[in-house]
Amino acid sequence: MNLNTMLCISNSFARVVIAAHKYNEKPTSEKNQNNINKCTQNLIAISEAIETYQKEHGDLPEWLSELYPKYLTEADILLCPADKNGGEPIFTHNADPKMPVSYGYQFHPEYREEKAQQRKVYGDVMPIARCRHHENQTFSCLNLSISGKVYTSSYNWEFTPEVMYGSHEAAITALEKALERYPDDPVNYDLYTGLFRLYNKVGQDKDLESLVDRFKSIMNPEDIEGYHQLFNMLNSMDRYEELLEIFKDAAQHHPDAEPILSILAYVHRKLGNIELSDVYERRADPKFDLWGKVVSDFSATDLDGKPISLQQYRGKVVLLDFWGVWCGFCIREMPNLKKVYDTYKDQGFDIIGVSLDDKEAELRDYIKDNDLQWRQIFSGESWSDDPLAQQFNVTGVPEQWLIDRDGKLITHKARDDELEGLVVEALKD
Ligand SMILES: [Zn+2]
How many angstroms separate the alpha carbon of residue 97 from the centre of ligand 1? Predict the structure, then answer.
């Protein structure tokens, strides 16, 4: 059975399994496919149980575990066959407090209010429970919608509403309706960019312009988020002169707002004003001022329980790599790190990984599976509470600090193609 085939599971609720997602074209192994099929059956059973629960209680359960044993007689149905840990959802802050559950439940008490708001916008097609255990190149999540559909999507289902609705046209209709109801609520600003993307996809060019104008007329200039949305739309139309005027104005209102300054740096670069671009880039990111200065030391414990500090690496060129297994960009960067490490480790180059993961087992699995040879620091705190992330003011990953033999910061942006050249240069000194 292939998920690309539209399947109709006939039962009293006429639930339908759809798989419209374009990323789901690569064949997966037979074992993986069997897991997906079993997981799909689980989700459908969960959907039926939720429906019965709702009829009796007039509301959704607080957690999926409340379905067991009255509405779901087998506890195994809450376990995905691909879940190696036997009942962990892989979604942060989403673990069921009462029993092992593989699925991320979207309406648990902490999220419920936010999800209820989203439900008003997206309707019953939005996910209620999600499985992330089949994550591979083809899709990230297997989702169960409130109305009982099972479909695959990327992690951020909000970005591709056409997957939930089944077609671009259906998604456009739904988002237009939502916009009629909530034309100027900042919580729903992304409806504009969502619709913009869909109009673009289907070639409804004439609607793009009016959507941008409409957004300009309702956006609150005090709300930075609105500028993000406006940027996304105008940038995709290459309207840099217009962006420059809007963001110069915005920078006067919000002189210290990093997102506004970053966008100005970007727009100036696009317009060929490289010097001005650099000025704004530095204003947006105070870490540029640390270049050439000695990096403050830390003392921590590595994954093997041994003490680790920057001082131990004095005399070496060292890359302090803030990363996480959950971070796609970090994982994509990893082959590059390994290549540079393998090439220069005997010439005085080393890496210290600072993992901002919250699941130690996942981190250890990744390190083992990918044979990462350098030391790792792991606090187990969420990344906003991690002591090193706080000390180095890391607010996004990957962030890669390259430090010279004297302990001075070369750059906090040592990535991609530039990494190797920077390391070679630093090793010369
Ligand atoms: Zn699953």
Answer: 19
Specify the pLDDT at position 404: 97
Q: DSSP H helical segments within 203-327, as ranges? A: 205-218, 224-236, 240-253, 258-270, 274-284
Stated pTM of the model: 0.70
Residue 48 pLDDT: 97
Residue 142 Cα, ligand 1 centroid: separation in angstroms? 7
108 alpha carbon – ligand 1 mean position (Å): 19
Instruction: Give pLDDT < 50 ranges for the chain.
Output: 1-27
Burial status of residue 81 (CB atoms within 10 A of its CB: 0-12, 13-18, 19 or more): middle
User: 64 CA to middle of ligand 1, Å?
Assistant: 15
**CA–CA separation, 310 and 34 (whole Å):** 48
User: 3.40.30.10, 3.40.50.10210, 3.60.110.10, 2.160.10.10: which CATH number matches 299-428?
Assistant: 3.40.30.10
Tell me how far the alpha carbon of residue 57 lies from the centroid of ligand 1, in angstroms.
Answer: 27
Alpha carbon of 36 to ligand 1 centroid (Å): 6
